[in-house]
Write a sequence for this structure.
């Protein structure tokens, strides 16, 4: 079977969120006890044995709180020793810049944010380069999350921020191109967090920005695109299946985050108007549709699991959540491959949407059965 690439996020493995819920529910994952190198070995030792053999694993890391100049060589060594790859690297600018980052109206912050992004690129091509996948088509994605690119005042300054953002992203792309242009670069849209309003709230706004960068700054669109984030679309009630169509139509799906806000399976609460709950992948009809669209388009790059354990999970339960998320996607992908698309399209062409609904529901039930079989086959008792 063809390899299926799944990437696991370092930030999932935290001791607890704190605030209104415990900050130490998983004490062995406290930062002073659990390093990024430990995280890599945990993936290899505790997660990979519970997955089908065709699943290939990678990691997603923030610069500079999860990987940085002081630990990057050790991180790369651990990745090489375990056969896990660097799938995604993102500048954790939101940890440093609260007033817009690359888009900031504060000249000093804006320049510091630019330098921060450049250092992230330098690290990717430096100490972390040996940890890339051997296939250039599966090279890591440099994801630019817009957590800093936000505002809370409705003023004419928003357009100035947007123009600063274009300047900064164009400069970052040119820096990466000077290193060789081997990375993929993805913008990750989000409607809110960490500001009430964001400069890149939707897939469409991120795609449009890339086209403006190409037109105004001569930025090549090769290997540029979107980090698909299902949950972010769900947060504001958008159709993440249609988002997938847009991403594929623009040839801009360079990375994916398969998390869910949960509302669309009829069991887990969440959805539009909620904060970013970060559930794992669910077995549902929408994910089957997305998997089918990705298969038809030939998408074979990394599928990330940007998720959080529940506030009451211990370490073993949190690990199990990640395993379940990966297996849920594999079940949906299998169901999408086995779906009789000719029959489905014939039902839709004949306006027999009830029959089409029945077919999708039956396919979803098959996906759940596939998940059950995978889970029972690959997991020990927890």
């Amino acid at each position: 079977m063809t390899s299926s690439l799944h990437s696991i996020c370092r930030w999932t493995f935290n001791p607890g969120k704190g605030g209104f819920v415990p900050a130490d529910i998983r004490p062995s994952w406290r930062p002073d006890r659990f390093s990024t190198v430990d995280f890599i070995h945990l993936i290899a030792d505790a997660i990979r044995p519970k997955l089908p053999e065709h699943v290939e694993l990678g990691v997603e890391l923030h610069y500079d709180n999860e990987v940085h100049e002081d630990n990057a060589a050790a991180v790369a060594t651990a990745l090489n020793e375990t056969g896990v790859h660097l799938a995604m690297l993102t500048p954790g600018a939101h940890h440093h810049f609260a007033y817009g980052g690359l888009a900031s109206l504060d000249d000093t912050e804006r320049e510091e944010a630019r330098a921060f992004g450049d250092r992230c690129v330098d690290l990717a091509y430096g100490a972390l380069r040996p940890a890339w996948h051997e296939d250039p088509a599966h090279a890591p994605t440099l994801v630019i999350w817009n957590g800093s690119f936000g505002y809370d005042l409705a003023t004419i300054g928003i357009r100035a921020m947007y123009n600063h953002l274009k300047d900064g992203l164009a400069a970052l792309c040119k820096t990466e191109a000077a290193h060789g242009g081997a990375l993929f670069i993805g913008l990750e849209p989000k409607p809110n967090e960490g500001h009430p309003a964001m400069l890149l709230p939707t897939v469409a706004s991120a795609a449009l920005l890339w086209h403006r960068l190409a037109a105004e700054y001569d930025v090549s669109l090769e290997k540029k695109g979107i980090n698909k984030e299902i949950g972010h679309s769900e947060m504001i009630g958008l159709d993440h299946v249609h988002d997938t169509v847009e991403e594929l139509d623009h040839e801009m799906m360079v990375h994916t985050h398969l998390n869910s806000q949960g509302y669309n399976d009829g069991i887990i609460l969440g959805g539009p108007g909620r904060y970013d709950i970060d559930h794992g992948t669910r077995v549902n009809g929408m994910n089957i549709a997305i998997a089918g669209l990705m298969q038809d388009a030939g998408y074979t790059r990394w599928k990330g699991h940007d998720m959080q354990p529940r506030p009451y999970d211990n370490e073993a339960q949190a690990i199990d959540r990640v395993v379940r998320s990966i297996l849920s996607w594999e079940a949906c992908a299998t169901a999408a491959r086995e779906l009789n698309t000719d029959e489905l399209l014939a039902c839709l062409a004949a306006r027999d949407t009830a029959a089409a609904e029945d077919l999708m529901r039956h396919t979803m039930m098959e996906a759940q059965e596939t998940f059950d079989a995978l889970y029972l086959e690959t997991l020990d008792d927890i």
User: Anything to note?
Assistant: The domain at 4-339 is CATH 3.20.20.150 (TIM Barrel). Residues 353-378 form the longest helix (26 residues). The chain has a mean pLDDT of 95.
